[in-house]
Amino acid sequence: xxxxxLLVSIVAGAAxxxxxxxLDHATREKTIASTKKMKEAISYYAANxxxxxxxxxxxxxxxxxxxxxxxxNVNTIAEKVDEFKDLPTTIQGMIExxxxxxxxxxxx
Length: 108
Fold this sequence. Notes:
- This protein is an all-alpha fold.
- 87% of the residues lie in helices and 0% in strands.
- Helix 2 (25-47) crosses helix 3 (49-103).
- The chain starts with 5 loop residues before the first helix and ends in a 5-residue tail after the last helix.
């Protein structure tokens, strides 16, 4: 059995697609501008590694805060779901109490 040509076909298709998209002038200009900007950023952070480290630490801290916030929100939602699970029982009890209050004979 021969090797699967799926990966080769995917890579070839991506290369052909990229080449065809470069025929459009606007796409080509945007790609060149993005590549230049990325090159400048890489050069800048290669020369200023401390700044890159601070930037990465800030992003990690922001991600950690976001994760904690999501975790708190999930816990709050779970608590509310538990409260709603008990709600039908509470409502059933209130209905039975109301029903019994109206069906009991009143003594005067």
